[in-house]
Amino acid sequence: QAYLSYSNIAALTHLARKPGWDITKTLDNVRIWTHEEGAVLSFKVEMQVKVPSHVAFSLLSDFSLRQRWDRHFLTCKVLQAVSEEEKIYHVTSVPMTGHQPRDFVILVSQRQPCRPQEPYMVAVRSVTLRTMPPSPEFCRSEILCAGFQIHSNSSSSCTVCYFNQVTSGVMPYLAANLTGSSKSIEDTALECIKFLE
């Protein structure tokens, strides 16, 4: 578990530091970037939020609040509290037209910064749990690497960056985005900002 947790945080740090991100969309307080490497597509959503970084961190690291702003989340329940900083959740998502509803078993690892210039981190990856095998009513999907980095701008504002390395499991939700209309990602980002503020 210690290794999984470490690799979860390390994978998100590595993804965030990759060179070659292309900006695809700029709004007032949201910027969307993509990064392609072979068959793997990653995206980053950068949001300017008018709350202190520690407040954004406490709200974003609690995935049971996620349905309040992310309409892709249908249900989200804690399966196991591994430690104060790690929880395993079972998430079900809204079915897309023509697709079976999907579910995910994810490890969410949260870290506070060790030094002032470092971001708060909330890293997400799929794990397997014997007590939660795939069920016939859902298509079990995988998250390779996703999560948030929260950088403090001032005592009352921060930059929230959401990252996701996209697999075929998440692809139906982003297909519209890849054809140039990033409405779903934009709307979710705006809902996230509204929720945090």
Automatic annotation (TrEMBL):
Annotated Pfam families: START
GO cellular component: cytoplasm
MF GO annotations: lipid binding
Domain annotation START: ranges: 16-166
UniProt protein name: ACO12 thioesterase
Gene name as annotated: Acot12_1
